[in-house]
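Section 5.1 Outputs to date
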Amino acid sequence: MSWITQMLENWISVTYLEECLNSVVHPLWLFIIPILLYSFWLFFYIFYCVVSFLLYIYKKMNNQQENDFYSKFWDKARHIMYHCFDIYGKIWHGYEIIGLEHLPQGPGIVIFHHSVSLLGYSFFVGKAYKEKGRLCNTVVHHFLYNLPGTKILCDVLLLRDFKKAECVEILKKGHLLGIAPGGAREAFFSKDYSLMWGNRTGFAWLAMEAKVPIIPIFAQNDSEVFRTFGNTRLARWVYEKTRCLLLPVYGGFPVKLRTYIGEPIPYDPNITATELAEKTKTALENLRDRHQKMPGSILRALSERFDKDDKANYFLLESERENKLTPPLTRARQLVEKLLQELPLQYALLDQEQKSSRLTCFDIKGSLVFGKKVCFDLIYLKDFKKAECVEILKKGHLLGIAPGRATEANFSNDYSLIWGNRTGFARLALEAKVPIIPIFTQNSCEAYRSLGKTRLTKWLYEKTRCVLLPTYGGFPVKLRTYVGEPIPYDPNKTATELAEIAKTAPENLRDRHQKLPGNMLRALSERFDKDDKAN
């Protein structure tokens, strides 16, 4: 370096340049900067070495000579480590596991998304061992297994670079086997929990050969605990060429972590490995889409960690949809129903006044509006697809539909129905073979009213479907909901004829129970008139 500084001094006529550069570019910085950037990986490695050393002492103190890590000798060590995992997960991440009953009694392959830290999967392994007594082997990269000083820890935790024959033997013994098809590529370069499996179907071949089910699991907010930086095209190119790149990591945030265990995908000899792999990928993506808010956000994940009333994703499980709501969900649902004042009043009141345990689902637009999805899902408001509607009806639930939708809400005059030629609800009733129940809420349009009903706003709405008119009101008017006679299923009627009958029924309810034109003062007087039994 001295000859370079000497040349620069002669060229630019600056003295003491060597002393200046030595003070700025000190050789020590060449070591400090990489240590700071890779501090997570260094801590991870040192921690592994320390625990491995303790396990080695434990082995020698008990004169254990065998290398059978499935023996009962290692159960105590495993139990202590998994108990420490559990305490750390509860304190730092408020960890919860949902769907543990989906784990089969016998063997199975657990498929998961590979995050940087894999904390969600690690906590799952500990819970499965503590609560179900299940040992879960995990396939890891040979680089991790062959790290000096960590082998005994990997063996005790059943982390190994298993060969295909070993995997089959493990499954035949009745154990679980965890595989992340995305591997390190998915951990370093995946964005927003995307699955980077490529054409990998080895786990599917393994499941078919061993004739075992595949269990997809997903850890909510797992990628928000630790994040990588330096995710560039150059880094990706280096990784693809060498397969030994470690990106710097930062984090350790106490975000909320939940692991969701999906329904097992049973063994089916009639499908190929490629089809099974695609089916597994779809199942894992469905878990992700149902339980992970996108794009990932550290701040939102932190707020979920410290929100005691946050039970946002419990309602998404089918088992909980069909059973009675848990007490926390009941409280959350009551709170949401009080807050959703902008919902159509007849829907909210009808749902609250039901004394039976039947679920009522409402087909609405805009259930994905930011900040409302959790509330809407809690009280079963969603933009259901046709297949979902049929499934809801076949389960014996009710389904609420307003054919007029926002057009009717914004531009209807005196409770007129603006349905146009919509007959989808009638086709749905015919397909599911269910009756149609008309309802009408007296004075519902007097509680809140909109401003700006003009031809221009109507034209804008028809063109864009996204116009929101200003609203005023909240008046304590008298509200009554009238439930009409059901229109029975009739296979001899067409959808158009059934839609016309269904339109006539609420119009008859309206004409019988609503004084027209609507009047807020009259509706208010009816609210406070104790003797009012007009309808």
